[in-house]
Protein backbone atom coordinates (compact mmCIF):
# COMPACT_ATOMS: atom_id res chain seq x y z
CA UNK A 1 0.00 0.00 0.00
CA UNK A 2 1.30 3.43 -0.93
CA UNK A 3 2.11 5.69 2.01
CA UNK A 4 -0.52 8.46 2.29
CA UNK A 5 0.65 12.02 1.69
CA UNK A 6 1.21 14.61 4.39
CA UNK A 7 -0.53 17.98 4.59
CA UNK A 8 2.54 19.96 5.59
CA UNK A 9 6.00 20.38 4.18
CA UNK A 10 7.11 21.40 0.74
CA UNK A 11 4.87 18.93 -1.06
CA UNK A 12 1.83 19.27 1.20
CA UNK A 13 -0.09 21.72 -1.01
CA UNK A 14 0.18 19.36 -3.99
CA UNK A 15 -1.20 16.53 -1.86
CA UNK A 16 -4.04 18.67 -0.54
CA UNK A 17 -5.21 20.28 -3.76
CA UNK A 18 -7.08 17.32 -5.29
CA UNK A 19 -8.43 16.30 -1.88
CA UNK A 20 -9.86 19.78 -1.33
CA UNK A 21 -11.67 19.50 -4.65
CA UNK A 22 -13.19 16.21 -3.47
CA UNK A 23 -14.29 17.82 -0.21
CA UNK A 24 -15.89 20.76 -2.00
CA UNK A 25 -17.78 18.45 -4.34
CA UNK A 26 -18.99 16.37 -1.39
CA UNK A 27 -20.15 19.48 0.49
CA UNK A 28 -22.13 20.59 -2.53
CA UNK A 29 -23.64 17.14 -3.09
CA UNK A 30 -24.61 16.81 0.57
CA UNK A 31 -26.24 20.24 0.76
CA UNK A 32 -28.23 19.49 -2.38
CA UNK A 33 -29.40 16.15 -0.97
CA UNK A 34 -30.42 17.78 2.32
CA UNK A 35 -32.36 20.53 0.56
CA UNK A 36 -33.08 22.58 3.68
CA UNK A 37 -31.81 23.71 7.06
CA UNK A 38 -31.85 20.25 8.67
CA UNK A 39 -32.19 16.63 7.54
CA UNK A 40 -35.79 15.47 7.60
CA UNK A 41 -36.97 12.45 9.54
CA UNK A 42 -35.58 13.18 12.99
CA UNK A 43 -32.80 11.39 14.92
CA UNK A 44 -33.66 7.83 13.88
CA UNK A 45 -33.59 8.60 10.17
CA UNK A 46 -30.28 10.46 10.51
CA UNK A 47 -28.80 7.56 12.47
CA UNK A 48 -29.94 5.11 9.79
CA UNK A 49 -28.34 7.10 6.98
CA UNK A 50 -25.08 7.64 8.87
CA UNK A 51 -24.84 3.94 9.73
CA UNK A 52 -25.27 3.06 6.07
CA UNK A 53 -22.60 5.51 4.94
CA UNK A 54 -20.10 4.81 7.73
CA UNK A 55 -20.34 1.04 7.85
CA UNK A 56 -17.61 -0.47 9.99
CA UNK A 57 -15.53 2.45 11.32
CA UNK A 58 -12.37 0.31 11.32
CA UNK A 59 -12.32 -2.05 8.35
CA UNK A 60 -9.48 -4.42 7.41
CA UNK A 61 -8.63 -2.43 4.27
CA UNK A 62 -9.23 1.18 3.48
CA UNK A 63 -11.30 2.59 0.62
CA UNK A 64 -8.84 5.32 -0.33
CA UNK A 65 -8.73 9.01 0.47
CA UNK A 66 -11.09 10.31 -2.20
CA UNK A 67 -13.82 7.73 -1.57
CA UNK A 68 -13.63 8.17 2.19
CA UNK A 69 -13.72 11.94 1.94
CA UNK A 70 -16.58 12.06 -0.52
CA UNK A 71 -18.73 9.48 1.28
CA UNK A 72 -18.47 10.84 4.80
CA UNK A 73 -18.23 14.57 4.03
CA UNK A 74 -21.29 14.21 1.82
CA UNK A 75 -23.15 12.42 4.61
CA UNK A 76 -22.01 14.99 7.16
CA UNK A 77 -23.31 17.80 4.94
CA UNK A 78 -26.52 15.94 4.14
CA UNK A 79 -27.17 15.46 7.83
CA UNK A 80 -26.04 18.90 8.99
CA UNK A 81 -27.92 21.65 10.73
CA UNK A 82 -26.71 24.35 8.36
CA UNK A 83 -26.46 27.77 10.04
CA UNK A 84 -26.06 29.36 6.61
CA UNK A 85 -29.64 28.40 5.77
CA UNK A 86 -32.03 31.27 6.55
CA UNK A 87 -34.41 28.89 8.34
CA UNK A 88 -31.70 27.59 10.70
CA UNK A 89 -31.84 30.07 13.57
CA UNK A 90 -32.07 28.10 16.78
CA UNK A 91 -28.81 28.70 18.59
CA UNK A 92 -25.73 30.89 18.93
CA UNK A 93 -24.34 28.79 16.08
CA UNK A 94 -23.06 31.06 13.37
CA UNK A 95 -22.39 30.43 9.68
CA UNK A 96 -18.60 30.82 9.43
CA UNK A 97 -17.11 33.17 6.91
CA UNK A 98 -15.49 31.48 3.94
CA UNK A 99 -12.20 33.26 4.64
CA UNK A 100 -12.20 31.91 8.21
CA UNK A 101 -12.94 28.37 7.05
CA UNK A 102 -10.11 28.60 4.52
CA UNK A 103 -7.78 29.73 7.30
CA UNK A 104 -8.68 26.56 9.21
CA UNK A 105 -7.22 24.51 6.37
CA UNK A 106 -3.89 26.27 6.79
CA UNK A 107 -3.97 25.84 10.56
CA UNK A 108 -4.75 22.13 10.29
CA UNK A 109 -2.09 21.57 7.63
CA UNK A 110 0.71 23.23 9.56
CA UNK A 111 -0.57 21.82 12.89
CA UNK A 112 1.33 24.05 15.32
CA UNK A 113 0.78 23.41 19.00
CA UNK A 114 0.77 26.47 21.21
CA UNK A 115 2.36 24.97 24.29
CA UNK A 116 5.94 25.88 23.45
CA UNK A 117 7.55 28.37 21.09
CA UNK A 118 9.57 25.75 19.24
CA UNK A 119 6.31 24.09 18.12
CA UNK A 120 4.68 27.33 16.97
CA UNK A 121 7.10 30.21 16.35
CA UNK A 122 4.93 32.39 14.09
CA UNK A 123 1.64 31.24 15.64
CA UNK A 124 2.92 32.35 19.05
CA UNK A 125 3.47 35.89 17.81
CA UNK A 126 0.19 35.99 15.89
CA UNK A 127 -1.69 34.90 18.99
CA UNK A 128 0.11 37.35 21.28
CA UNK A 129 -0.57 40.35 19.07
CA UNK A 130 -4.11 39.46 18.03
CA UNK A 131 -5.23 38.62 21.57
CA UNK A 132 -3.81 41.92 22.86
CA UNK A 133 -5.55 43.79 20.03
CA UNK A 134 -8.92 42.28 20.89
CA UNK A 135 -8.36 42.99 24.58
CA UNK A 136 -7.75 46.64 23.65
CA UNK A 137 -11.19 46.66 22.06
CA UNK A 138 -12.61 45.87 25.52
CA UNK A 139 -10.22 48.13 27.47
CA UNK A 140 -9.37 50.94 25.03
CA UNK A 141 -7.94 53.35 27.58
CA UNK A 142 -5.54 51.00 29.36
CA UNK A 143 -1.85 50.55 28.47
CA UNK A 144 -1.45 46.75 28.55
CA UNK A 145 -4.69 44.76 28.29
CA UNK A 146 -4.38 41.12 27.29
CA UNK A 147 -6.51 38.11 26.45
CA UNK A 148 -6.24 34.34 26.45
CA UNK A 149 -7.56 32.12 23.67
CA UNK A 150 -10.15 29.63 24.95
CA UNK A 151 -12.51 27.03 23.55
CA UNK A 152 -15.47 29.29 24.30
CA UNK A 153 -17.58 30.85 27.01
CA UNK A 154 -17.54 27.87 29.34
CA UNK A 155 -13.74 27.78 29.52
CA UNK A 156 -13.50 31.58 29.70
CA UNK A 157 -15.94 31.80 32.60
CA UNK A 158 -14.11 29.02 34.40
CA UNK A 159 -10.81 30.87 34.00
CA UNK A 160 -12.42 34.09 35.26
CA UNK A 161 -13.57 32.38 38.45
CA UNK A 162 -10.18 30.68 38.84
CA UNK A 163 -8.36 34.02 38.60
CA UNK A 164 -10.76 35.54 41.13
CA UNK A 165 -10.11 32.63 43.50
CA UNK A 166 -6.35 33.06 43.17
CA UNK A 167 -6.53 36.81 43.74
CA UNK A 168 -8.26 36.04 47.02
CA UNK A 169 -5.73 33.40 48.07
CA UNK A 170 -4.97 33.66 51.77
CA UNK A 171 -8.24 35.46 52.52
CA UNK A 172 -11.92 34.57 52.62
CA UNK A 173 -13.12 32.36 49.79
CA UNK A 174 -14.67 34.19 46.87
CA UNK A 175 -18.46 34.18 46.81
CA UNK A 176 -19.84 34.30 43.27
CA UNK A 177 -23.04 36.28 42.76
CA UNK A 178 -24.87 35.95 39.45
CA UNK A 179 -28.32 36.36 37.97
CA UNK A 180 -30.87 33.73 37.18
CA UNK A 181 -30.16 34.73 33.58
CA UNK A 182 -26.47 33.74 33.82
CA UNK A 183 -24.98 31.00 31.66
CA UNK A 184 -24.99 27.56 33.28
CA UNK A 185 -21.19 27.45 33.09
CA UNK A 186 -20.90 29.98 35.95
CA UNK A 187 -22.41 27.63 38.51
CA UNK A 188 -20.56 24.67 37.05
CA UNK A 189 -17.23 26.52 37.27
CA UNK A 190 -17.82 27.33 40.95
CA UNK A 191 -18.44 23.63 41.57
CA UNK A 192 -15.32 22.56 39.68
CA UNK A 193 -13.15 25.07 41.53
CA UNK A 194 -14.44 24.22 45.00
CA UNK A 195 -16.00 27.64 45.51
CA UNK A 196 -19.19 28.14 47.51
CA UNK A 197 -22.42 27.62 45.61
CA UNK A 198 -23.15 30.90 43.77
CA UNK A 199 -25.80 33.21 45.10
CA UNK A 200 -28.34 33.49 42.30
CA UNK A 201 -30.30 36.73 42.13
CA UNK A 202 -33.71 36.31 40.53
CA UNK A 203 -34.15 38.09 37.18
CA UNK A 204 -37.91 38.27 36.54
CA UNK A 205 -37.38 41.09 34.03
CA UNK A 206 -34.68 39.09 32.21
CA UNK A 207 -31.77 41.21 33.47
CA UNK A 208 -30.05 41.79 36.80
CA UNK A 209 -31.65 44.50 38.91
CA UNK A 210 -28.91 46.62 40.55
CA UNK A 211 -31.10 47.09 43.64
CA UNK A 212 -31.47 43.32 44.05
CA UNK A 213 -27.72 42.89 43.57
CA UNK A 214 -27.09 45.62 46.14
CA UNK A 215 -29.25 43.74 48.66
CA UNK A 216 -27.47 40.45 47.94
CA UNK A 217 -24.02 42.01 48.36
CA UNK A 218 -25.13 43.65 51.61
CA UNK A 219 -25.51 40.17 53.09
CA UNK A 220 -21.95 39.07 52.23
CA UNK A 221 -19.18 39.60 54.77
CA UNK A 222 -16.28 38.55 52.54
CA UNK A 223 -15.02 38.88 49.02
CA UNK A 224 -17.49 38.66 46.12
CA UNK A 225 -17.32 38.30 42.35
CA UNK A 226 -20.40 39.63 40.59
CA UNK A 227 -21.01 37.97 37.22
CA UNK A 228 -23.06 40.02 34.77
CA UNK A 229 -24.17 38.95 31.31
CA UNK A 230 -24.00 40.90 28.06
CA UNK A 231 -26.19 38.80 25.79
CA UNK A 232 -28.08 36.08 27.62
CA UNK A 233 -28.48 32.70 25.96
CA UNK A 234 -32.28 32.71 26.17
CA UNK A 235 -33.32 36.25 25.32
CA UNK A 236 -30.13 38.02 24.22
CA UNK A 237 -30.63 40.74 26.81
CA UNK A 238 -27.81 42.79 28.35
CA UNK A 239 -27.53 43.45 32.07
CA UNK A 240 -27.24 47.16 33.07
CA UNK A 241 -23.46 47.14 33.18
CA UNK A 242 -22.71 50.73 34.35
CA UNK A 243 -25.06 50.46 37.32
CA UNK A 244 -23.83 46.98 38.21
CA UNK A 245 -20.22 48.18 38.05
CA UNK A 246 -21.08 50.98 40.48
CA UNK A 247 -22.90 48.59 42.79
CA UNK A 248 -19.99 46.16 42.82
CA UNK A 249 -17.49 48.95 43.50
CA UNK A 250 -19.57 50.27 46.37
CA UNK A 251 -19.35 46.88 48.07
CA UNK A 252 -15.69 46.24 47.21
CA UNK A 253 -16.75 43.39 44.91
CA UNK A 254 -15.20 42.56 41.55
CA UNK A 255 -17.16 42.39 38.29
CA UNK A 256 -16.79 39.74 35.59
CA UNK A 257 -18.87 40.13 32.44
CA UNK A 258 -19.86 37.15 30.35
CA UNK A 259 -20.08 38.85 26.95
CA UNK A 260 -19.69 35.64 24.97
CA UNK A 261 -22.63 36.67 22.78
CA UNK A 262 -22.71 40.44 23.01
CA UNK A 263 -18.99 41.24 23.12
CA UNK A 264 -18.57 41.60 19.34
CA UNK A 265 -21.02 44.52 19.43
CA UNK A 266 -17.80 46.43 20.15
CA UNK A 267 -16.94 46.16 16.44
CA UNK A 268 -19.97 48.29 15.57
CA UNK A 269 -20.04 52.04 16.00
CA UNK A 270 -23.85 51.88 16.13
CA UNK A 271 -24.20 49.02 18.64
CA UNK A 272 -21.13 49.30 20.87
CA UNK A 273 -22.82 51.76 23.24
CA UNK A 274 -24.92 48.87 24.54
CA UNK A 275 -21.74 47.64 26.26
CA UNK A 276 -20.90 50.82 28.18
CA UNK A 277 -19.52 49.75 31.54
CA UNK A 278 -17.74 46.71 30.16
CA UNK A 279 -14.36 48.35 30.77
CA UNK A 280 -15.05 48.27 34.53
CA UNK A 281 -14.83 44.47 34.63
CA UNK A 282 -11.81 42.58 35.97
CA UNK A 283 -12.36 40.05 33.17
CA UNK A 284 -14.59 39.70 30.10
CA UNK A 285 -15.63 36.59 28.20
CA UNK A 286 -15.81 36.88 24.39
CA UNK A 287 -16.78 34.34 21.74
CA UNK A 288 -16.10 34.96 18.08
CA UNK A 289 -17.74 31.69 17.07
CA UNK A 290 -21.05 33.34 17.94
CA UNK A 291 -21.34 36.93 16.75
CA UNK A 292 -17.96 36.79 15.01
CA UNK A 293 -18.56 34.30 12.18
CA UNK A 294 -15.68 32.00 13.08
CA UNK A 295 -15.59 28.19 13.01
CA UNK A 296 -15.59 26.66 16.48
CA UNK A 297 -13.55 27.28 18.58
CA UNK A 298 -12.82 30.99 18.90
CA UNK A 299 -13.21 32.10 22.51
CA UNK A 300 -11.25 34.64 24.56
CA UNK A 301 -10.94 35.88 28.12
CA UNK A 302 -9.87 39.53 28.21
CA UNK A 303 -8.29 41.21 31.24
CA UNK A 304 -7.29 44.86 31.80
CA UNK A 305 -3.61 44.02 32.35
CA UNK A 306 -1.56 40.99 31.38
CA UNK A 307 -0.22 40.82 34.94
CA UNK A 308 -3.65 39.52 35.98
CA UNK A 309 -2.81 36.25 34.20
CA UNK A 310 0.27 35.44 36.30
CA UNK A 311 -1.54 32.95 38.56
CA UNK A 312 -1.86 30.68 35.52
CA UNK A 313 1.91 30.32 35.24
CA UNK A 314 3.22 26.76 35.23
CA UNK A 315 6.59 25.13 34.71
CA UNK A 316 7.43 21.94 32.84
CA UNK A 317 11.09 21.59 32.03
CA UNK A 318 10.57 20.02 28.62
CA UNK A 319 8.36 22.94 27.50
CA UNK A 320 9.54 26.07 29.35
CA UNK A 321 12.86 25.33 31.02
CA UNK A 322 14.07 28.27 33.09
CA UNK A 323 17.24 28.77 31.07
CA UNK A 324 15.24 28.81 27.80
CA UNK A 325 12.89 31.41 29.24
CA UNK A 326 15.84 33.47 30.52
CA UNK A 327 17.33 33.26 27.03
CA UNK A 328 14.21 34.88 25.57
CA UNK A 329 12.04 31.99 24.42
CA UNK A 330 8.37 32.87 25.09
CA UNK A 331 6.71 30.91 27.89
CA UNK A 332 3.29 29.71 26.72
CA UNK A 333 2.19 27.47 29.60
CA UNK A 334 0.65 30.42 31.40
CA UNK A 335 -1.50 31.23 28.36
CA UNK A 336 -3.95 28.40 29.00
CA UNK A 337 -4.87 25.52 31.28
CA UNK A 338 -4.53 23.28 28.22
CA UNK A 339 -1.18 21.98 26.99
CA UNK A 340 -1.62 21.04 23.34
CA UNK A 341 -3.54 23.90 21.73
CA UNK A 342 -4.64 24.53 18.16
CA UNK A 343 -3.79 27.88 16.50
CA UNK A 344 -7.40 29.03 16.72
CA UNK A 345 -6.15 32.58 16.56
CA UNK A 346 -5.09 32.27 12.90
CA UNK A 347 -8.62 32.35 11.47
CA UNK A 348 -9.45 35.30 13.72
CA UNK A 349 -6.35 37.23 12.69
CA UNK A 350 -7.01 36.57 9.01
CA UNK A 351 -10.65 37.62 9.33
CA UNK A 352 -9.78 40.82 11.15
CA UNK A 353 -7.14 41.67 8.56
CA UNK A 354 -9.48 40.88 5.66
CA UNK A 355 -12.50 42.83 6.96
CA UNK A 356 -11.11 45.36 9.41
CA UNK A 357 -13.22 46.83 12.19
CA UNK A 358 -15.54 48.48 9.69
CA UNK A 359 -16.23 45.20 7.91
CA UNK A 360 -16.86 43.32 11.16
CA UNK A 361 -19.07 46.15 12.37
CA UNK A 362 -21.12 46.01 9.17
CA UNK A 363 -21.83 42.31 9.80
CA UNK A 364 -22.90 43.07 13.36
CA UNK A 365 -25.15 45.89 12.16
CA UNK A 366 -26.70 43.61 9.53
CA UNK A 367 -27.81 40.87 11.94
CA UNK A 368 -29.02 43.35 14.56
CA UNK A 369 -31.02 45.05 11.83
CA UNK A 370 -32.49 41.73 10.72
CA UNK A 371 -33.61 41.05 14.28
CA UNK A 372 -35.42 44.39 14.45
CA UNK A 373 -37.09 43.62 11.11
CA UNK A 374 -38.22 40.20 12.32
CA UNK A 375 -39.57 41.62 15.58
CA UNK A 376 -41.53 44.26 13.67
CA UNK A 377 -42.92 41.59 11.33
CA UNK A 378 -44.03 39.49 14.32
CA UNK A 379 -45.77 42.52 15.83
CA UNK A 380 -47.69 43.02 12.57
CA UNK A 381 -48.66 39.37 12.25
CA UNK A 382 -52.16 38.66 13.59
CA UNK A 383 -51.38 35.03 14.49
CA UNK A 384 -48.11 35.63 16.36
CA UNK A 385 -47.06 37.21 19.65
CA UNK A 386 -43.73 38.99 20.30
CA UNK A 387 -41.86 38.69 23.61
CA UNK A 388 -40.04 42.01 23.31
CA UNK A 389 -37.75 44.16 21.22
CA UNK A 390 -34.38 42.48 20.58
CA UNK A 391 -31.27 43.70 22.39
CA UNK A 392 -28.88 42.03 19.95
CA UNK A 393 -30.06 39.53 17.34
CA UNK A 394 -32.36 37.19 19.30
CA UNK A 395 -36.11 37.39 18.78
CA UNK A 396 -38.61 35.45 20.93
CA UNK A 397 -42.12 34.89 19.64
CA UNK A 398 -44.91 32.33 19.77
CA UNK A 399 -48.19 31.51 18.06
CA UNK A 400 -50.97 33.50 19.66
CA UNK A 401 -53.33 31.33 21.67
CA UNK A 402 -50.99 28.31 21.84
CA UNK A 403 -50.06 26.76 25.16
CA UNK A 404 -46.51 25.70 26.06
CA UNK A 405 -47.04 22.09 25.03
CA UNK A 406 -48.30 23.16 21.63
CA UNK A 407 -45.35 25.53 21.16
CA UNK A 408 -42.91 22.69 21.95
CA UNK A 409 -44.71 20.29 19.61
CA UNK A 410 -44.77 22.84 16.80
CA UNK A 411 -41.04 23.43 17.13
CA UNK A 412 -40.25 19.72 17.05
CA UNK A 413 -42.55 19.21 14.08
CA UNK A 414 -40.76 21.83 11.99
CA UNK A 415 -37.42 20.38 13.02
CA UNK A 416 -38.29 16.74 12.29
CA UNK A 417 -39.67 17.73 8.89
CA UNK A 418 -36.39 19.50 8.14
CA UNK A 419 -38.26 22.73 7.38
CA UNK A 420 -36.97 25.08 10.09
CA UNK A 421 -34.70 25.02 13.13
CA UNK A 422 -35.89 27.34 15.88
CA UNK A 423 -34.75 27.39 19.48
CA UNK A 424 -36.81 27.43 22.64
CA UNK A 425 -36.61 29.71 25.65
CA UNK A 426 -38.65 30.19 28.81
CA UNK A 427 -39.36 33.80 29.74
CA UNK A 428 -42.09 35.40 31.85
CA UNK A 429 -43.15 31.89 32.80
CA UNK A 430 -43.98 30.83 29.24
CA UNK A 431 -42.26 28.90 26.47
CA UNK A 432 -41.24 30.89 23.38
CA UNK A 433 -39.81 30.08 20.00
CA UNK A 434 -36.35 31.61 19.64
CA UNK A 435 -34.83 32.91 16.42
CA UNK A 436 -31.16 33.81 16.80
CA UNK A 437 -30.24 35.65 13.61
CA UNK A 438 -26.53 35.33 12.85
CA UNK A 439 -26.64 35.11 9.04
CA UNK A 440 -25.75 38.53 7.60
CA UNK A 441 -26.99 37.46 4.14
CA UNK A 442 -30.58 36.76 5.18
CA UNK A 443 -33.23 38.72 3.22
CA UNK A 444 -36.51 40.31 4.35
CA UNK A 445 -38.43 37.74 2.30
CA UNK A 446 -36.63 34.97 4.21
CA UNK A 447 -37.87 36.41 7.49
CA UNK A 448 -41.42 36.64 6.19
CA UNK A 449 -41.26 33.05 4.92
CA UNK A 450 -40.02 31.83 8.31
CA UNK A 451 -43.01 33.40 10.03
CA UNK A 452 -45.34 31.86 7.44
CA UNK A 453 -43.89 28.44 8.23
CA UNK A 454 -44.69 28.91 11.90
CA UNK A 455 -48.14 30.34 11.30
CA UNK A 456 -49.04 27.58 8.82
CA UNK A 457 -47.77 24.90 11.21
CA UNK A 458 -49.96 26.37 13.95
CA UNK A 459 -52.98 26.33 11.63
CA UNK A 460 -52.40 22.68 10.81
CA UNK A 461 -51.93 21.95 14.50
CA UNK A 462 -55.22 23.67 15.39
CA UNK A 463 -57.05 21.86 12.57
CA UNK A 464 -55.54 18.51 13.51
CA UNK A 465 -54.13 18.04 10.00
CA UNK A 466 -50.63 16.58 9.35
Automatic annotation (TrEMBL):
Keywords: Aminotransferase, Decarboxylase, Lyase, Pyridoxal phosphate, Transferase. GO terms for molecular function: transaminase activity. Its cofactor is pyridoxal 5'-phosphate. InterPro entries: PyrdxlP-dep_de-COase, PyrdxlP-dep_Trfase, PyrdxlP-dep_Trfase_major, PyrdxlP-dep_Trfase_small. PANTHER family: CYSTEINE SULFINIC ACID DECARBOXYLASE (PTHR45677:SF8), GLUTAMATE DECARBOXYLASE-RELATED (PTHR45677). Gene3D superfamilies: Aspartate Aminotransferase, domain 1, Type I PLP-dependent aspartate aminotransferase-like (Major domain). Pfam families: Pyridoxal_deC. This is Aspartate aminotransferase family protein. Belongs to the group II decarboxylase family.
